[in-house]
Description:
With 234 residues, this protein is α/β, with parallel strands linked by helices. It is built from 7 helices and 9 strands, in the order βαββαβαβαββββααα.
Amino acid sequence: MRPLLTVQHTPVETLGTLGDALRRAGVPYEYVRTQAGEPVPQSAEGLGGLVVLGGPMGVYETERYPHLEDEIRLIQDALECRVPVLGVCLGSQLLARALDSTVGPADTKELGWGRVETTEEASYDPLFGSLGGSFTAFHWHGDVFGLPEGAILLASSGPTPVQAFRFEERAYGLLFHLEVDEGLVRRMLDAFEDEAREAGENPYEILRQTPEHLPQLMARAVRFYERFVRLLFT
């Protein structure tokens, strides 16, 4: 089994429940920690999959974060090599940008627990269909993007027209955080508390809502990641 590469932008945001699924399935994986200055590979050759995680930077901040351009090129190479790709939050924005979509600041930030509305196409999707219709997800983003040309819209929310999409058969972008567990939620709230308060959100209220919404999200994540692992083996 070829290893899966995970591009990480901040110690706070990890694979979470996806890491659990990979370990259960015996899928080897490794991190490239851009926050520690580790270089992004120039090629996807030899990879069994590519996961690009979230982070506080914007896709358009390439002068401040030059590794973002390297990530876009790596995603494009993975698409050409038919390596499965999963972009989470910032990772979904980088995937969209790699597909020539416009990415930029939203009118309002979408933080905390909020409803995701799935599309009809999502019910037939090999991975997204396992989520079982509309649900409450964990959000933490201030940027949005248009649906890339040729991509299939899988989900949206009130503030955000494109919450999830699939490109061809092996690339998925999820703007919301499906991978969170309780520890990850707490770490994000601790690390980005100031951002939440500046956006008019109370991090303690978000934490209070977590026991209500997290179990159903984690159950959906198990089903989704089981199917993602199958994609890695095909």
